[in-house]
């Protein structure tokens, strides 16, 4: 009982601090590790509906929310392949990220959405609306959003297991980083679209900086993850107004040209 009370008390403080962390400046990266997203555990956020959808090895939705991750736990749960990034036009994309916001906890960011605007790296001026489906701890001193696009997996063994050893150039034990667009063709077919996005829209940028502001999640993202925070209906922000307009118009464009959505995930064990 004492341990529970201590954990609860310590958890209140960062959630109060998080109210000031809806907007900020941070950096981004790319990753894809095939692991179950951290926000796929039901206790990782205030969502009474459903945490982030995870999938079986064959990419079918997994109904067992307690299934262990294929990374580090020897479980059967992987990230769903439809959680990869996609472009709506030359300057706007949708996607999913592993988030880390200083002064907050994953209970604050899991399944929340953000409008991010890139500041450098050759993609300045481009923007995304993303949903936080995972948690990343690359640098706990900075705000970081990791975009889940095929690059170099942190847990190559899970990807090798999922695809039966295919795609060694990207999924090899040494975590080989793709360097050219043509190498995307060597990946397993389900990962190729996200890889092409990395070169075609993201311009293979290396950890560009960005500004971020929380916005109300667009349906095109929550339809993929199945996750809607309990505070979504009461969430208000002025900075997200423009982002919400983009989300709505982008959704119509997306449906019109039959593109797919994408998510990115970092393995995070209990």
From TrEMBL:
SUPFAM superfamilies: Barwin-like endoglucanases. Residues 26-227 form the Glycosyl hydrolases family 45 active site domain. Keywords: Carbohydrate metabolism, Cellulose degradation, Glycosidase, Hydrolase, Polysaccharide degradation, Signal. Belongs to the glycosyl hydrolase 45 (cellulase K) family. It comes from Orbilia ellipsospora. Its EC number is 3.2.1.4. Gene3D superfamilies: RlpA-like domain. It catalyses: Endohydrolysis of (1->4)-beta-D-glucosidic linkages in cellulose, lichenin and cereal beta-D-glucans. PANTHER family: ENDOGLUCANASE 1. Residues 1-18 form the signal peptide. One of its GO terms (molecular function) is cellulase activity. It comes from the Eukaryota. One of its GO terms (biological process) is cellulose catabolic process. This is cellulase.
